[in-house]
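Appendix B, Record 12. Input sequence as logged:
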Amino acid sequence: MERTEALESLKIIDEAMAQTRRAIAHSGSGYFFIIWGIVWLVGFLGNELLAPPVAGYLWLALDVLGLASSVIVGIRMNRRVRSPEGKRTGLRAAALWGLLMVYGVVLFWAASPPPDRFSLFVTLFIGFAYAIAGLWISTPLLLTGLGISALAAIVWVAAPGLLPYALSLLGGGGMIAVGAYMLRAWK
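Logged structural output:
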């Protein structure tokens, strides 16, 4: 292969990557990161600052709001999709998240983690879910899942008492930042 042919091939690859980033940004993926980043930011902070029963109700409310917001955003984004394949992909993604949540509940029930590892268990499972979904849906989702899992494991080993703060500020804040970056920089 000649040098000019190699450079032309690299240019084509770069353009394909840029088109992929624009497609992900236009699909609204960034909104989902922002929604769930806010849920994590407020929820994990509430875990640490509120009495346990109140924190439980806060998480319930945040999860309902996060789910409802995700459905609304998904429906609005789906209206932009004109192809049957796009709609099938959206339904598959919804089914994937539904199955992951069912498995998460069953695994939590089966594992019965002690109270001091509850947040760690849930966080590692959510990180796993993001990573698995990311393999299929988008690289930012994969990287977010791996990052959240690494953050939880490192903080748990180094300073377990700081885990709720790290998950709130770094986990939730990180998801918000990833979502904002995707919506702005990838257009």
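Residues 52-80 form the longest helix (29 residues).
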